[in-house]
């Protein structure tokens, strides 16, 4: 029988005897979240269940359900977690704040072309037909959208008190989302790079 | 036993005795295509089968399969058919060709906010995970995308021989697609209208 430091129901406890329980719990949670995003990106909503994710993360189904009681909990938390990670990474790319606008436009568009966007897209589309998922995803999308807008305004050094600037930045983020969609079925990198270069130049002119 | 003009397997033949057979066949086909787009927009790919569409269109399953042997045939044809209808309607809005750019930007964005975009989005997302669907939808998306680009260039009076103009128009269409995505879960009309007004003004300045 294990004590508090090595409970029976923690399979890694024997190998990681010095890792405090709450850190192990956090690590398990993060493994589940990362596996959930990868699963959603690869297999879509229909192929993404708590069991599939638990197996992929090497976690028991019971442990997965302890962290995330429902399928909706797991996948909305996963998309939110990765969105936060990406926001942090984006800010870290430009540690001095407002930066070269062409580089910022390129980095913003990059947010929408990886597995996170693909996962989020599957979640959005599923939510559009599933009443249980829709309010959760709508709320999440609004929150992530506001945060991304805030980062974009900061890094572009955009003065939103000037008329039209807010809508210019919003349109730019809509364009980034559209570029993500265009990358769903084919590798659109070559075309995208030219569009991003041109729109980086236009932002430079427009935002002054 | 019915003759050629009123075959047993055409339930409407008795009511429409003077409609030539090929016109009835075309009408059946169009009813199936319209029902397929509506079904895809409302229920997504998972809920969209040939049987469901046939019932919605008031057509026998056998007749539906005569027109569209596979599920992939039916839904790619449906999205293509409606995309063509929309292109024709868009050109008809501006019969004299190049027109007021703000009005053209608004009309282009409208292409991406209705049931067709919703249906196409479900098809794209399903195709990203289904090997049987992906090549068909990829080819369709490329074809529809080229046609939309051509219309946008014409109506905006954009001179693509000038550096950057092609990419400006492409980015505008990517923005329109992104605005369609933002409208998936919530009614985004108020925000969208402001973005469209601002980007209409940007296009006016940029395209000269």
UniProtKB/TrEMBL annotation, chains A, B:
Coiled-coil intervals, chain numbering: none
Gene3D superfamilies per UniProt: Tetracycline Repressor, domain 2
Database matches in InterPro entries: Homeodomain-like_sf (IPR009057), HTH-type_TetR-like_transc_reg (IPR050109), HTH_TetR (IPR001647)
Disordered, as annotated region: 1-27
Molecular-function annotations in GO: DNA-binding transcription factor activity; transcription cis-regulatory region binding
PANTHER family, A to Z: HTH-TYPE TRANSCRIPTIONAL REGULATOR PKSA, HTH-TYPE TRANSCRIPTIONAL REGULATOR RUTR
Protein's UniProt name: TetR family transcriptional regulator
Organism of this sequence: Streptomyces albiflavescens
